[in-house]
Amino acid sequence: MDTKEILKKVKKIEIKTKRLSDHIFSGEYHTSFKGKGMTFSEVRQYQFGDDVRAIDWNVTARYNEPYIKVFEEERELTMMLLVDVSGSGNFGSTDEFKKDIIAEIAATLAFSATQNNDKIGLILFSDEIELFIPPKKGKTHVLRIIRELVDFKPKSSKTDVAMALEYLSKVIKKKAIVFIMSDFITPSYERTLKISAKKHDITGIRVYDEREKELPNVGIINIYDAETKEEKLINTASEHVRKSYTANFLKQEDEFVKTFQKCGAGIINMRLDESYVKKLLGYFKAR
User: Fold this and answer.
1) Secondary structure E strands in the chain
2) b/e per residue, 114-132, with b = 16+ CB within 10 A?
3) pLDDT tens track for 202-240
4) What is the pLDDT of residue 115?
5) DSSP state of 227
6) What does the alpha-carbon distance between residue 103 and residue 78 come to, in Å, rounded to a whole number?
């Protein structure tokens, strides 16, 4: 993909996802994720119904009438996007690959965070850390993140979510809102997720394709594993093969749901052809 194509794709994603975040998600995001606490704003005269515990006795004594301290929510947060860039993201039986939808979801979340003046950081991972962009504010920073999501070429094709979570703990010391975007075809990560979820507000967004769940009956076909680079012939006419294929998918899905629930983390489980807009809105409102 040349520079002109990259910029065109970045612009297309920016227009689509910024509109979504401006008109749909910014308010939902604001109410879903809380700031660090309350910070002092000003002192004003006491009004009927105010909490007497908020009275500023020093100012009250000075002016001989009651004044109270006003506090406001300290909104600034840090959002970290952990995005799986392994080989299995280059799959899709619809018009788009898994990695394309993940890029749009990440961009929508980033623009929503920008609306609230929050910092956004990015970790691209396979079975190694491919890229780390430290958290910063602003539209220019978000556009850099989108550009990396669109055009980044990973060194490895495999996946290791546990390794990505360990790296997150090393580089982000304060509590952050963390979205892990992957198909979660990965070795076990329960222990590291449990540790990370105690410190951060974590949500797993699992994106999968319908063809990863069910094989069509089309006879003998050649299957290529985008992560291990292995190829094998399988007979899709065999009911046993098709059932085993579906059973393996359901096992992975069950592990994802149970692991995140057990660790107290949020879950968004979505098929590639489903509306991520509805999925995100439903998740934010449920919080």
Assistant:
1) 37-45, 67-74, 78-84, 119-125, 129-136, 177-182, 201-208, 220-224, 231-235, 266-271
2) bbbebbbbbbbbbbebbeb
3) 999 999 999 999 999 999 999 888 898 899 999 999 999
4) 83
5) T
6) 19
